[in-house]
Amino acid sequence: MLFSGIKSRPLYATLQPDPFARFNLVLVQGEGVNAAVRLLECAGDQFRMRTTILYAGAAQAADRMRSFQIQRMQFLPTIETLLVRVDGFLATAMMGTRLYTAGTEGFMGQVIQHAGNYFIDHKSIITEHCGSLARRIQCIHCRGATENVTTNVVRCSHCGVDLLVRDHYSRRLAAFMAVSADAEAPGTLPAIEKIFR
Prior knowledge:
By secondary structure, this protein is α/β, with parallel strands linked by helices. About 20% of the residues lie in helices and about 30% in strands. The protein has 5 helices and 10 strands; from the N terminus they run βααβαβαβαββββββ. Strands 3-2-1-4-5 form a 5-stranded parallel sheet, sandwiched between helices. α4 (about 80-90) packs parallel to α5 (about 105-115). The longest helix is centred in the middle third of the chain and has 13 residues, at about 80-90. It is elongated, with a radius of gyration of 18 Å.
């Protein structure tokens, strides 16, 4: 069952430059490139000269970011590769570093999860949701994660249990929780709807 207004549900704003940051790390995935371009357009030269962008997605989609004079920009083939690079940056980050992220909810959740490993509070990260509403879920029975879930009921890719996707979100796990869909009446599943597009 889905609830609107649940407290654990992440809320996102839009990317806005922090003029007081000494260094900016902008993490972008897929359609988040539009938010990053908007951020760079409204930021001044000083902001752009103190900014590093890491992008995971199709290289041609990021062509618009190339026109800005950015301190450093890297195009990475996968989200996993980007997160490894983020670990390298955050391990040596200075005080005054500001973290920005734009992309799908699953991507931003993983970024926030990684930042937590370096004691960066999730409220200090500037986020903007872009693209699909597909969810990253975690089965509470086997603890396996399943990516890009678009329906309210889905079969766990690890243990095979039919799961009901909940609105309860775990920041620690970077995933929405999913519970057995037919625990009380085995074999009886609710109607499957595609609601996270």
